[in-house]
């Protein structure tokens, strides 16, 4: 048997990922078998197992094709975050939305994740992966929010944890809403204005830290003469 070259193996892996995205989108992840993915890709079922341990690993690799470019954007913006943390948050947020708007593959992956996946059973590891990605995004956002407070870009009593979650929810919600109806508006064109409106709200009236109420001093009882 002739050993496959690295280039051939990579080409087969790519075909499987493309086929999986197409079949998952048409039938949903739960109702799709690896045999159906293999048939769609024009390879044997054994070829699927050569590259992926199970459906969960295949699903994770498919999702990685969307998140990897966003991770690269985050690293690029991170280089300038020390001098302008709020500007870095703005750049990353706009880049996330414009990337989605311009990349059909990312649109298809997000459509599968949001509308065609039940991350339970054999795909439970996919839910864990999504949770890790979310936690990483929130941590990065909060670090930048704290930097923005330190540099006077946000009020000093800003609750950076809630602010980070608010921005994350805004970006994810915008993605979900746009994927549901992509003809509603031009996301790439609208992204800067949408992000600027969100950040303007945080600058003007962010969630505030709740300071503990000082305990009232008890008066010593007066002595009766």
Describe this structure as you would to a colleague:
The chain is mainly alpha-helical and 225 residues long. It has 2 domains: 8-52, Orthogonal Bundle (Arc Repressor Mutant, subunit A), CATH 1.10.10.60; 63-204, Tetracycline Repressor, domain 2 (Orthogonal Bundle), CATH 1.10.357.10. Helix content is 70%, strand content 0%. The protein contains 9 helices and no strands. The protein has helices at residues 6-27, 34-41, 45-51, 55-78, 85-102, 104-115, 124-150, 160-180, 187-204. Helix 1 crosses helix 4, helix 7 (124-150) crosses helix 8 (160-180) and helix 8 (160-180) runs antiparallel to helix 9 (187-204). The chain starts with 5 loop residues before the first helix and ends in a 21-residue tail after the last helix.
Q: Under CATH, the topology of the largest domain is which?
A: Tetracycline Repressor, domain 2
Rg from alpha-carbon coordinates? 24 Å
Q: How many strands, what sense, and barrel or not for the largest sheet?
A: none
Uncertain ranges: none
Number of helices: 9
Structural class of the secondary elements? Answer: mainly alpha
Give the % helix: 55-70%
* CATH homologous superfamily descriptor of the largest domain: Tetracycline Repressor, domain 2
CATH architecture assignment name of the largest domain: Orthogonal Bundle
Distance between the termini: 109 Å
Instruction: Return the average pLDDT rounded to an integer.
Output: 85
| Strand-residue proportion | under 5%
Compressed to H and E, one letter per element, the order equals HHHHHHHHH
How many β-strands, per DSSP? Answer: 0
CATH class of the largest domain: Mainly Alpha
> What is the count of distinct domains?
2
Shape: elongated
